[in-house]
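We treat protein structure as text, and this decision shapes the records that our systems exchange. The tokens are whole numbers drawn from a learned vocabulary of local backbone shapes. One such record is reproduced below, unchanged from the form in which we store it:
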Amino acid sequence: MAPADLIASRRPHRADARRNFDAVLAAAAEAFTDLGGEASLGEIARRAGVGIATLYRHFPSRDDLIECVYTTSVDDLVRYGQSLDQADPASLEDWLRRFTTHLATKHALAAMLTRESEAYLVSREAIYGFAEPLFARAREAGAVRGDVDADDVLRLVFAVTGGTYTDDAQRDRAVRIVLDGIRPQP
């Protein structure tokens, strides 16, 4: 199952309910980015312009909402990757930078997912399903060292983005060091 399928299975059929669902999802993504994973559900409902009962009708628990926000972000990440010229080795760096942004804004949510949750499993499969062939093509083109694979780099980027930085520029420098480290050395 793809992330888009998981989201679609939860999205209501009625137009008004779908609008409320999407409004809550967008407001939650914004609130979690602004306030972290502990953003209150009341604040999310307020930002969405709906009552708390409407939020709970669509997302019976905080975990349901977190999973859906995270899965939506993963779906956006994979769609972005699919829009790149995957034959171009530079696409790997473009996608890794987007992956870094995804993690920087969704790290707290990812940490809240359990490894057994459907959202975690679907998201992991989608990310690795896209990243592994992209890495293989970059390695074949000589743009990536032969002794690193997608799993190594994705875990490293996850660790780097989880750190505390003085500003975005410092985090970007740390990611640049990772990217420099996966390139073949002369």
Q: What stands out?
A: The chain has a mean pLDDT of 88.
